Amino acid sequence: xxxNLKQVVGIVREASSLMSRGGFSVTGKGSRExxxxxxxxxxxxFLTGRLxxxxxxxxxxxxxxxxxxxxxxxxxxxxxxxxGTANYARGIASCCxxxxxxxxxxxxxxxxxxxxxxxxxxAVRGKGAHLNGRRIKVSDRPFEEGLMFTxxxxxxxxxxxxxxxxxxxxxxxxxxxxxxxxxxxxxxxxAAGKAxxxxxxxxxxxxxxxxxxxxxxxxxxxxxxxxxxxSLSKPSLVLAANSRGNCLRLLETVRRHMQKVPxx
Length: 264
Description:
It is a single chain. This protein is of the alpha+beta class. It has 7 helices and 15 strands. The strands form 3 sheets. It has an 8-stranded mixed beta sheet with strand order 4-3-5-6-7-8-9-10, sandwiched between helices. About 45% of the residues are buried.
């Protein structure tokens, strides 16, 4: 069953009304760095209900409440109700709702909405990427002029020194670094030509499923440690760039520092 992108966009836009600028509660999820707000839960409940109605028989993989109903489903929604929750909880605009639809574990539709920026990024496989309805594409800047989005493995700080070594090598060969606190927003900004390079040691599928497709449809490349699109069923190292060549150069740098990903 083919899903109408406009309907998904409408559902996501409705869900964003639950992202209030105040009056939400904040609780921890096992560490001081990992938090969830009542808005995360409200958005996720809304999205799963509406998307299930839109595509009967589909499964879900969602960040909150350990929701992983994927077995036996050809179509699975991968949802991050609020990517950049720490930003959201502090009133920082770099946060978003991320919704991807995967068919037999291949991304076919992606919607990322950053409501406080009023930026709606969308993509359908084979049909390009768009920002607020306008076609977008990656920049053509070379590696040496590239800005890199990155982070220090916030939830697994035992990898921070390894991240630092990799980031240092890339930094010395490129232009500069940026860190905004939302993987989905960063990958989408790359799709719009605002940065060229990306490295994160460990992300979850809901962080990159939708934005990764958007970046690919804008002409970019996304890969994991093995060079193929990162796993959509478990944590993954994520590299991305505005070109295949630049992404492979990132991968070569990573492989100089480790022979395999240091986690399952």
